[in-house]
Amino acid sequence: MTRPSRPTTLFTGAGLLDPGAGTRTPGWLLVEDGRIARSGGDPAPEVGDAVEVVDLGGATLMPGLIDAHVHPTAFSADLGAAMDHSPSYVAAYAARSLNDMLRRGFTTVRDVAGGDWGLARAVDEGLVDGPRLMFGGKALSQTGGHGDFRGPGRQGNGTHACCPGAGLVCDGPTEFRRAAREQLRTGAHHLKIMLSGGVASPTDRIDSTQSSEDEIRAVVEEAEAANRYVTGHAYTARAVNRGLRLGVRCIEHGNLIDESSIELFLEHDAFLVPTLVTYRELARRGEQEGLPPESRAKVDTVLARGLDALRAAHEAGVNLVFGSDLLGGMQDRQSEEFAIRGTVQPAADVLRAATVNAARLLGLEGEVGTLREGARADLIVVDGDPLADISVLADPARTIRTVLRDGLVRHRRADSL
Question: Nearest-CA neighbor of 254 among 328, 198, 330?
């Protein structure tokens, strides 16, 4: 496929937001061949006629956002429904979902169960206009675990590698090892394993531990051999601590962690990806979005404790990363995670979670999530100052003026044309 030409553009009159430093300063930024070439304070340099000059009029120019917990293939909150749907339907839904994420300013996302190499390739080749997609394939789950979305009366393992669905059911270290190798064979950027019960799975308890120690070790060994990492779904301190001790690099959710968990996060330099907005939306709209009754009953268990866990992890200096984890029609609330976190964290720290911290987790440090020279020109133009008011990013339809990925304009708000 022919790649579009990448213009050379000089942005002037900008408030350059550096999330690493937590500063916003007046200045200019030059984009060449899809990368950030130079930047500096006013006045802007003189450039030739071949360079497009864009005066931002004081708007904020900042790195594109990163969401490290998305499920664009999840067309319903009933994750078991995917097993009975056409792969082409799921792909079409995912294409729209990813485009919506891009329009909200997310230029890189990490799919942590459901997306695959084909969807990532479609984005890379421009068949789908969406954020850069870092995928892990299917999540690995024991029978009856969080990746087993069968109801109690459904027989068979319910999952097949070639069919839609978020999970693969495995039992024993040999099956987990083989499944891990299969995901890595397709180019997975990480592996996901279920370490505890979850909300969306119909037959397990939130407070259960899942995957035996031998099973977890097998997956960690395969990831490390491939220079990849393992992320684990876990809520309780018992499940989180077990995973961290066995080499799991990142924990998704972690709503029920305690001080012992925080000590292990710090000891292992591990990452935590809270996903608070999804519980709020599941409580509000889960029933209408297809969440089964047995799953709706679990929401309150994790909803109340999520902010407390985030506050404790933030105060201790744990590596925190932005995630949303929304399903089906609730994905339109993705950006509201910023406002929720802003009730507990300073704006600068919330921004780091969605930029530099996320980039480090994804192995893209210096490439995305930064205005550093040589980084990819993944940029968003924002009306307002997110450092002064993080809720600016919670209303992208109103505040995000332009989105660039690799130096190309991917979205421009109609009233900014």
Answer: 198
Neighbours of 185 (CB within 10 A): 11
H or E, element range at 101: helix 87-103
Report CA 99 to chain centroid distance, whole Å.
15
Residue 2: DSSP 8-state:
P
Reading the block at residue 116, the tokens are: 């695959």
> First-to-last CA distance in the chain?
28
β-partners of residue 406 are none
Condensed to tens digits (0 to 9), the pLDDT of residues 20-78 reads 999 999 999 999 999 999 999 999 999 989 999 999 999 999 999 999 999 999 988 77
Per-residue pLDDT tens digits for 294-344: 666 667 767 778 999 999 999 999 999 999 999 999 999 999 999 999 999
Task: Copy the structure tokens of residue 140.
Answer: 């690995």
Alpha-carbon distances, residue 192 vs 45, 71, 197, 333, 347 (angstroms) = 47, 13, 14, 24, 29
Helix (H) or strand (E) holding 168: strand 167-169
What is the DSSP secondary-structure string of 218-278? HHHHHHHHTT--EEEEEEEHHHHHHHHHTT--EEEEEEE--HHHHHHHHHHT-EEE--HHH
CB neighbourhood size of 298 (10 A): 22
Domains of the chain plus CATH, in order, are 9-64+368-416 (2.30.40.10), 65-334 (3.20.20.140)
What are the backbone dihedrals phi and psi of residue 244, each rounded to the nearest 5 degrees, phi first?
A: -65, -40
Residue with token string 């972690």: 254
Q: What's the DSSP call for residue 64?
A: P
Does residue 4 register a pLDDT over 90? no
| CA–CA–CA angle 316, 317, 320 (5° rounding) | 120
Query: Both tokens of residue 11?
Result: 């942005």
Place of tokens 């009366």: 153
3-state secondary structure of 376: strand
Q: How far is CA 95 from the centre of its chain?
A: 16
Euclidean distance between CA atoms 56 and 46, whole angstroms: 17
